[in-house]
Amino acid sequence: MDDKAVVLGLSGGVDSAVAACLLQEQGFQVYGHWLDIGLGGREDAAAVAAHLGIPFSTGDIRRALEEQVMEPFRQDYLAGRTPLPCARCNPTVKFPALFQRAQEVGARYVATGHYARVLADEGGTLGLYRGRAENDQAYMLARLPMDWLPRLLFPLGKFRKSGVRALARQFGLPVAEKPDSMEICFIPDGDYATWLEQRGAVPPTGDFVDREGNVLGQHKGIHHYTIGQRRGLNLPAAHRLFVSEIRPADNRVVLSDGSDLMADAVWGTDWNPLAPVEPGQAVTVRLRHSKTETPARFCPQEAGVRLALETPARAPTPGQLAVCYDGDRVLGSVWITGAQRLPAPEA
Fold first, then answer.
1. pTM higher than 0.85 for the full model?
2. Which residues of the chain have pLDDT under 70?
C-alpha cells in the first residue's frame, strides 16, 4: 500500500478541487474519484482532474445511495422523524466507495473536501476534531468508525471558506467561481416534500391540534413538518405557532406557542464512539447542524445514551444527530430518539 497515494472524493466543487491542490503540494499522488448519483456533474470533476494532471475515475453509487440513504430518508419522514441524510451517507456509501477505490489503486489514504481535522492527542491516539468554527463539518462526519481515522485526510481543516475560494483562484482552477452547493445532493432543488410525493404514497392531510387536542386547522401531511417549525403552517392565530409534536399514529401535528419546546434531557441510540467517554463525563453536545452547543452530562444506559442537558435546548428532534465534544474533539454521536421536555409555563 502506497503511503504517498490518496484517493480524493472529487465532487466538481471548489472545496474538493482545492483539497486536490493542497495534497499535491504535500507530495501525494492524488487519484480523483467522482461518485455518480445519477444527476450529472461529472464534467466539472473531470475538468479539475485534467487541469491538475491527476488520474480520474468514476464510481456508480446509485444503488447504495438508494438502499442506505434515500429509502431510510423517506421512511423517517413517513414516521414523523426529521432525517439527516449526509451523516448517514458518509459512513455507509461515500467513504466506503472511496476506500474501495483506494484498494484498487493501492492507496493508503482517502481524502475529501470536508472542513474537519484528524489529529493525534498527547498519547498519540488519533481523533476527529472540528475545522474552523465558521465552516466546521465534523458534525456530519461523527458517524465514521474510529478505526478509519488513520487513513483519512482532510486538507481543508485549518482553512476558512473564504480562504479556500481565494486559493481556488490562485491555483487557476476551472471551478474557482462555481457557487457552493447547500442542498441535499439527491434533492438539488431542496423541495423534499415533492421528492417524497414523487416516490409514492405519503401521509394524507390531517388535523393541526393544540396541546389539549382542539382542532386548529388542516395540515398538508406530516412529511411537511419538523419539530420547532414556524414557517409554512398557514394558520391564522393570535400568536405565533410552532410545531410541538408530530403524531404519525393518528396523523396529527400538535402546535403550540413554543413555550413547551425546551428540553433538559435527550435520549439517543446507536452510540458511535470516536474517543473514550466516561459515565457522567461533562461534554458539550450539538443537537443539529448549527453552531448552537449545549453543556451536558454523558449517561450511558442499557438501551442507548441519555444526555442530561445543563442548559435547556430548544426542540431536540428525533432523526437528527446528537454529537458530543470535548473542546474541539468529537467524542461520538447518537441518533436522537426522544427528549424530556420542560413543562410549559402556566398561562
1. yes
2. 346-347
